[in-house]
Amino acid sequence: MAHKNISVFIPHAGCPNMCSFCNQNKISGAEKAPSADEVYSICRNQFENMPDRSNTEIAFFGGSFTAIPYDYMISLLECVQPFICENGFDGIRISTRPDCIDENILDILEKYHVKAIELGCQSMCDDVLMMNNRGHNSECVFKSSELIKNHGFELGLQMMTGLYGSSYEKDIETAEKICHIKPDTVRIYPTVILKNTELDRLYQSGKYITHDIEYMVNLCSEIMDMFNKNGINIIKCGLHASETVEEDMTGGYYHPAFRELCESRIFRKAFENAFLSYDEKSFLIYVSDRNISRAAGHKRSNTDYFRGLGISLKIKSDSALADDEFAVYNAAKGETDVFKIS
Fold it and tell me: What is the pTM of this model?
């Protein structure tokens, strides 16, 4: 069964400063932090209407959970405990800042059945962190990640690409350092510029210059490929589709199917590398059942791309292939050659 979250958004709660890019009210669609009673009602409703609760977590997102007022944090943790039981939800997932983790906090989270902790590291380049008013450095991410792993929690790291002061090379460096930490999960968020943020003011003044979406697809597809090769589960790539975000963004990198664009690009690059082994202009490609659309590309962008190069593609499914494999029919041999996607 696929993993599910019962998401509870706590916009800005606990954040000690305002990062250049941040407007959590717009990202989450929430305008105020919920009370314990409201959270209890959300979970009870989901509990009563979800027959199969396996592999489901209660997730506190949006703010820095471990930096909110202590009594408020405890009230939220306590109010959901009745739903973490036999035949109940698996546990709790939280997101927080790297500088809001210590041994005492981790002991409390363990007591209340928190299973996964996601840190918003955003960048692992100290100059980028400083320019975006993050209030911590990359060493803090390394130390907090080690504490979390040593306590036995699932570790998730969140990174942003295309931040003010960053570059293609710096974002790749961040991904490489994340791979070194070896988290269980990652989220990749291309920067979206929202109204009434410092980033928007920098953008409007011309100090923050962005690239086109093609640049970001190339970058994030390379980063996704790195994480895949290192066995790190990519939970998300791109902000979730939201009317609120679309209405309030003034620039940056947003597409409602951004992850699909990146996954399609990974297939395109893999096909290009494989085709170097052949002296042909027409290819029959086999992929696993679930990869048909990724292989063809978003709105058949991959088949159109190769057609523009004078190469014809026909893509079929083969249930015998793993999701990280594809096969090319070799007409000269009368058999298929199997390749790895990453």
Answer: 0.92
